[in-house]
């Protein structure tokens, strides 16, 4: 007997949520030591399988580079664990004897984890660790094109958790994901918070589900090489970042902006590192490959190598090509090279100075990256401060690969694969989302001072006062009627003139 795929998916989701709720109720009673043992077991198991999961992800999705996905899995397991292992998430967090306030940790409950096709295993590991550390359960909805590798990652985490004493069902998933099941998961009455990583439509659905949600916006990241920068080092960072996993991290640079004084140096260094600059004819072919419709990215180029993308466009490039770059002067949905491209493809802009670079960066961010990140290469701290004050981004990454710096691999930002964009990008936070976002704090507050509250005195209006007020109101209405009767047609349509005439009449009567 054949079963409807959507119905099967919905039932799987409901079963997983029910099991997660029951497991979380038990897990919420665990001590800090018990929780920490489970979290460490998950991190160790996931780290040990980093390479295996990387291979599965590339085989299933056809996106990215195995060695780079292995690094992502290592960051998502070991680095995330190291950043959260000492965070207290159980019981009393702190007692402020002076202020007489006590803070107590409270888990959210059941987390809905939405996982993207671009980072399917590392995201699942990361979200599991921060959810479980905060004493939550988590239910995953994988991307249909990455369901097997995502579920394998979740299974590795679940098995390790159960061996360490966690109740069965604490980590769950939908094995036959559909859009309907994902939407219903986010709206399920027993789901308490959503961790959404994916396309803008899915993130909007998370925010409109009626549940608290941590989502992320797109990252059309500009990279500005300012005239005082170490050009060789800057280009090296940009190439390393953009070629990492073929640009699938949303914080990877999308456009290069270079001061005119150092343009030739930058171009030369890019070519030395395997970048291929398209001529006008090749650029036109590439534009339709990047974006067949204005403002819409062709998903077939996401996470693909520059050789594969060039072949799609009917362009012949050297076998050692690392990046495809086109000179550009415009920004807009009608300019394919200026939109977010999760692939090793760049727009190259020339700025006369930092003021023009600021303007270009703003235009690029407004096109689809407000609130996310900006990469800045400079040795001038005043330039850094200017950009920090003026750019609508949550992360300004200085002299580091943007993709790796934003997720905390090459900076001291919190290791995370959910990068908030703040209100610039319509998100609830501008932080790198981590465990502290996944539990609440009760506060016990003792009285510390007394306030004298005046006794309320009821005021009454007697019958005589009411009659006087009514009589006054009737008199005013009579005067207004007289004035309107005498007013010319032109004056009748002039409220200011009528007001003056009424005021003058009242003044005469008062005398």
Automatic annotation (TrEMBL):
Residues 11-277 form the Aldehyde dehydrogenase domain. One of its GO terms (molecular function) is oxidoreductase activity, acting on the aldehyde or oxo group of donors, NAD or NADP as acceptor. It comes from the Bacteria. SUPFAM superfamilies: ALDH-like (SSF53720). InterPro entries: Acetaldehyde_DH_acetylating, Ald_DH/histidinol_DH, Ald_DH_C, Ald_DH_N, Aldehyde_DH_dom. Keywords: Oxidoreductase. Gene3D superfamilies: Aldehyde Dehydrogenase, Chain A, domain 1, Aldehyde Dehydrogenase, Chain A, domain 2. Pfam families: Aldedh. This is Acetaldehyde dehydrogenase. It comes from Fictibacillus macauensis ZFHKF-1.
């Amino acid at each position: 007997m054949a079963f409807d795929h959507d119905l099967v998916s919905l039932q799987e989701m409901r079963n997983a949520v029910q099991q997660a709720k029951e497991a979380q109720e038990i897990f919420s009673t665990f001590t800090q030591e018990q929780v920490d043992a489970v979290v460490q077991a998950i991190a160790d198991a996931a780290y040990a399988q980093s390479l295996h999961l990387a291979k599965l992800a590339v085989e299933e999705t056809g996106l990215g580079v195995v060695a780079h996905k292995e690094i992502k899995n290592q960051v998502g397991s070991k680095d995330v664990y190291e950043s959260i292992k000492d965070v207290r998430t159980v019981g009393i967090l702190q007692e402020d004897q002076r202020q007489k306030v006590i803070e107590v940790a409270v888990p959210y409950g059941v987390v809905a984890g939405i996982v993207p096709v671009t980072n399917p295993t590392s995201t699942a590991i990361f979200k599991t660790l921060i959810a479980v550390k905060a004493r939550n359960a988590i239910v995953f909805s994988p991307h249909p094109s990455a369901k097997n590798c995502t579920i394998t990652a979740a299974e590795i985490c679940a098995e390790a958790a159960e061996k360490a004493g966690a109740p069965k069902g604490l980590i769950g998933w939908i094995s036959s994901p559909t859009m309907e099941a994902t939407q219903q998961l986010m709206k399920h009455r027993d789901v308490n918070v959503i961790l959404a990583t994916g396309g803008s439509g899915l993130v909007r659905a998370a925010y409109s589900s009626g549940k608290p949600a941590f989502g992320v916006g797109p990252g059309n990241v500009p990279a500005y090489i300012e005239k005082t920068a170490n050009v060789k080092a800057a280009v090296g960072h940009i190439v390393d970042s953009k070629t990492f996993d073929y640009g699938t991290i949303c914080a990877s640079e999308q456009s290069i902006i270079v001061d005119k004084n150092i343009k030739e140096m930058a171009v030369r260094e890019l070519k030395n590192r395997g970048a291929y600059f398209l001529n006008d004819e090749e650029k036109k072919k590439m534009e339709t490959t990047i974006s067949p419709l204005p403002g819409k990215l062709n998903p077939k180029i996401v996470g693909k190598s520059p050789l594969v993308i060039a072949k799609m466009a009917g362009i012949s490039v050297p076998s050692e090509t690392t990046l495809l770059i086109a000179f550009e002067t415009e920004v807009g949905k009608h300019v394919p090279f200026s939109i977010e491209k999760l692939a090793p493809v760049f727009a190259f802009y020339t700025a006369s100075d930092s003021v023009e670079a600021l303007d270009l960066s703003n235009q690029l961010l407004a096109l689809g990256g407000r609130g996310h990140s900006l990469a800045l290469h400079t040795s001038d701290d005043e330039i850094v401060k200017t950009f920090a004050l003026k750019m609508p981004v949550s992360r300004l990454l200085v002299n580091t690969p943007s993709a790796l710096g934003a997720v905390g691999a090459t900076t001291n930002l919190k290791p995370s694969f959910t990068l908030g964009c703040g209100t610039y990008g319509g998100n609830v936070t501008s932080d790198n989302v981590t465990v502290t976002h996944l539990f609440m704090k009760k506060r016990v507050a003792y009285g510390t001072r007394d306030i004298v509250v005046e006794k309320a005195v009821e005021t009454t209006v007697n019958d005589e006062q009411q009659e006087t007020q009514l009589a006054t109101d009737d008199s005013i209405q009579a005067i207004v009627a007289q004035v309107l009767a005498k007013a010319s047609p032109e004056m009748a349509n002039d409220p200011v003139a009528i007001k003056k005439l009424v005021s003058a009449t009242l003044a005469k009567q008062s005398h």
